[in-house]
Records
---
Amino acid sequence: MIFLRPYSFSHLCQSLCPQQLALYRDYTFVASAYLLEPCDLLYRKTGDYGLGRSVLPKNIAVPLVQVAEKIGAKPFMEYALSYA
Amino acid sequence: MLRQTLHRQGPASLKSILQNPARASTPAIAAISNTLRLQALAIREYSTPSAPSSSPMTTNQGQPKYRHFHTSDFNLQAREVPGFPILEDPLAHNHSIPSFMVGIQNGFLPRQDPLDVLPKEYQALEELLQKMPLTLKDGSKGLLALGQFGEACKSLPQYDLSNVEDSELLSGRFAPQPPTCCPTLVHTT
């Protein structure tokens, strides 16, 4: 018989609140839109995606990391917390 | 065991008899007879409505007895798990319990509805998001459609979110916002 190791969800229990979730959701959308905007533009013009931007400016990156750490998420768009 | 018997004896004996009907030996006919008997037994077992207990169950001879799964089994097997309450009230203003709990009203979704609009403290971010979609609510083109989003991000201030808590919301500092369409949803649809 296999026993699964219990996962700790204490970080989720304590800190998931609407304002943090909304900020995380919105910053992940800003980050993805910023990084992938060149791909969208090129795709509409030539049908090829090309490359996205390689650097995320700190006015987006720093708040995104801060709020992601608070809610125990990764600082990039997630299914459950961004677009689900 | 029943299945093994059916697979081993039945097809082989039947094949040899069909190929050489005149040479059908007594043991071969006996094997087919036995096979048919076991098959009938198996059909009877499968079609008999069995007791509403665990499945598969065991007969007196120690052989496993399988039966078809039925949706009524949920009622018999489902039981409340201790320490896993089903919320009748989502308790939206209670921030001491987890956001993701199973409830009658919210299902598996978070107990609280998400914020449609960010607080005024983050007005610049909110305005950027409102202008971001390919098509704005008034039908005009947004920043992403015009290819101006990257440039517009340069004017976004760097907010300090290291101390973001919901204390403001709890104290009612931010009045409930009028229902507006979420900018992220506009973008995705």
---
Amino acid sequence: MDSDRLSISLTGLKLANPTMLASGILGYSAETLSGIVEGGAGAIVTKSVGLKPRKGYPNPTVVQANCGLINAMGLPNPGIDEFVDEIREAKTVLNVPLIVSIYGFSAEEYAAVAQKAVKAGADAVELNVSCPHVKETGSEIGQNPEILAGVIRKVKAVVKKPVFVKLSPNVTNIADIAEIAAKAGADALTAINTVKAIAIDTETAIPVLGNKVGGLSGPAVKPIALRQVYDIYERVKVPIIGCGGIANWRDAVEFLLAGAVAVQIGTAIATKGPNVFKAIAHGIDVHLKKKSYRSVEEIVGLAHR
Amino acid sequence: MSGWHTADNKYRITSIKNIRSNNLTVKTFTFNDKACAKAKPGQFLMLWIPGVDEIPLSILGVNEDDKVSVAVKKVGEATEALHNMKESELIGIRGPFGNCFSASKGRVLMVGGGTGIAPLLFLARRLVSKVVGASFVIGAKTKTELLFLDELQSLLGKENVVATTEDGSCGIKGLCTKPLESLLAEEEFDMIYSCGPELMIRKIFDLAEKHGMLVEASLERLMRCAIGLCGSCVIGRHRVCRDGPIFRSEQLREIVSEFGVSKRDFDGRKIQI
């Protein structure tokens, strides 16, 4: 990993390797995020933060599926006015790009939160327009082309830093949505958020999650996410960040070949610990060396032939 | 920070086999669960009350027949719903989660307050035949709220169990930290195990530091995923669910600005303890 093969430029941000922490994981405090950076993450995406504090849903908020996790946390967060302190601290202790994930219940809210996040030091913002389990935000915005374009334009108008847009897989054609997001000004697209799902208990005949429905992550969604990244790459030119069930270097390389320039990892931290970033980056590096590539950027989209 | 195995995270539906009232606000629930029956003292499980909530609970005891017990104090909506359940009704269990108390072989002291006595009783049962000596200080508001006094006295001998109550209705009047000042000045303990209200544990830790003794403390935070992902239970750079719930002196020293001072609320904001 001492070579330069792994370093990438993502919308102008320099990443030492293409692995990033996915939003939603451990993102309240700068101190815990520093543990993820020590684990080898090339960039950090925070938990989604909104204009006001939110308590989230009652437990169970996570249920184990056969090949993944279904979660319905309900976007718990302290609100941007409190979170700016963590952003400032994170900027002083983390030596990797910090991307703040944000959500809102209107284009104005997204813009207001983005502005505050950037002012506090965020290197970029990632718009959560794809959370599948909170009404009137998340995927309810990302599934509606007009509203989505409006949100992106509004945010782009008020921040100078890169704006990433995290897409929902819960749409008929993700490439259509990706094209709309790119036209509205998205600097990069993250694909995908969790796949809307439910768990029902046979003995009690009750949906397990407190919110009944949630989002599926982990190995179960990987092939779906991979196909969606592949489809998006065929249609748009903006950088794609692959996300969904990545747990080892082969998974990561598949996403790079499908067209992603970087990958986000979340659920695998539960099974493999924060050093999963180092392990994946090392595996990619060994693979590149074996195949005689000088840079990881050379294999992006290589499967499109 | 480290990873773990997902198998135990899948919830199992099981029926409540036995319910025993310990006092007006605490009940002990016993059920069968193979995975949690292998738990070590200090570990916790997540108990799902179908349709209501899922809560973290310290494990009170296990036996060879895969029976698992938890002591639950009625403190809110979820625990009240559990208290209202009857034997043979169904609950969901996942776990065990977290690390466990270490097995010290020397002279040990256990200090427990309220339902915090539960995991320490589990520990005492495992340690009693292996240590040089074991003393136990337990505390509660009143005599009726004092948990497991009889069990501890028959396990460790009456002379090794010190009871304290805030109203003086049993044993020493005051908090369970009260007898510690003289106890730690007179005796050398190789390990002090502690569980209970965090302000109590903080005081025990400060006393132990003063006397140069080691502590292992069981800490509690808001728990959601229980597998080290969601960040709800962070203290310092640690996740209580995965890196804890048992923290050693050297870790406690790193988190003194939060330990016994603040915790994170449902929305992630820091609030006073």
